[in-house]
């Protein structure tokens, strides 16, 4: 791609660094910004810069926040004895959208993945272990992705808590709502059978 302006080229290169954005899409976005009134593009740039500069990570759960402690952790109507452990901030948003969970979260910032060079020390596991003892957490619900890395992380943290009296659960794994049995892989189908639910509890969720 050749450019008649180095300023344009630089902006396209910056946009193309974003995940899922190729050079062509980056060019389309930059050309769109050029067409906008200057003050709107300025506001766009200022919003990004301010977000990056001022955003904080909650000192308790490591979720993004405008304050030292996020609005979930500081909400007194939530049950602080139940902590849902998730991989990233997007998972918090997904679970919050269900409006089915009234406990707190802990954002690990990833999962243990030796192949990608991610070990326990790069995650917020120590902070979680400290918090469990400090806040008298009674139940940890693991809501990690059902894959080897997720399971490794779950086993690692569970092992660390072997001596600690705490209930450790994971979200159910099985057939997705709207899915079809014949297309499910054997592992998923097997787990669905293992994690079967009494019909009464299933109906009461509706
Ligand atoms: Zn928090």
TrEMBL record:
One of its GO terms (molecular function) is zinc ion binding. HAMAP family: RecR. Residues 81-176 form the Toprim domain. May play a role in DNA repair. It seems to be involved in an RecBC-independent recombinational process of DNA repair. It may act with RecF and RecO. SUPFAM superfamilies: Recombination protein RecR (SSF111304). This is Recombination protein RecR. The gene is recR. Belongs to the RecR family. It comes from the Bacteria. One of its GO terms (biological process) is DNA recombination. SMART domains: TOPRIM (SM00493). Keywords: DNA damage, DNA recombination, DNA repair, Metal-binding, Zinc, Zinc-finger. It comes from Lacibacter luteus. PROSITE patterns: TOPRIM (PS50880). A zinc finger (C4-type) spans 58-73.
